[in-house]
Amino acid sequence: MTKERIEYDPDKKLVKIYRTFSTPKTLVPTKELKRWTAVAKAGEDDQGRPVKAVRYVFDNEETAKYNHQPVSYAGLQAYLDEGGKESPLGEGPDFSAREDFGIDG
Q1: 19: closest CA among 54, 44, 46, 48?
Q2: Nearest to 12 by CA among 56, 57, 58, 51
Q3: How far is 85 from 5, CA to CA, in rounded Å?
Q4: CA angle 73, 82, 37 (to 5 degrees)
Q5: For residue range 38-53, what is the model confidence (pLDDT) as tens digits?
Q6: Which of helix, strand or coil describes residue 33?
């Protein structure tokens, strides 16, 4: 089972995408990453709200670590939900080819 919940913080102009996958080490679909990358680059979501950042928040540590590289390479933030406290997974990606994670194509 896959679940997604989206929240918007108007003070921080931040979109948070809470993602749950039934299988650990499941990648966020490429089409979904492209959608949120476009929102981040445009600085506005599909409802016309200003957006300074888009953050993925994963509830499973394995899944969070597995997605950190492609999510950060897409220009988005990757966080882990640790019992209500959100912790960043680190800085940008350790690779330079977009094709490594199917971001292009």
Answers
A1: 54
A2: 51
A3: 16
A4: 25
A5: 999 999 999 999 999 9
A6: helix
- Checking DSSP bridges between strand 53-58 and strand 77-82, what pairing results, if any? parallel
DSSP state of 30: H
Residues 65-92 pLDDT 10s: 999 999 998 999 999 998 889 999 876 5
- CA distance linking residue 55 with residue 44, whole number of Å: 14
Residue 29 CA to residue 32 CA, distance in Å, equals: 5
| DSSP letter assigned to residue 28 | P
User: Partners of 82 in the beta sheet?
Assistant: 85
Whether 79 and 88 have beta carbons less than 8 Å apart is answered as yes
Assigned token pair, 99 = 């094709």
Long-range contacts of 87-93 (CB under 8 A, 24+ apart): 89/64, 89/65, 93/68, 93/69
Query: In the predicted model, is pLDDT for residue 103 greater than 70?
Result: no
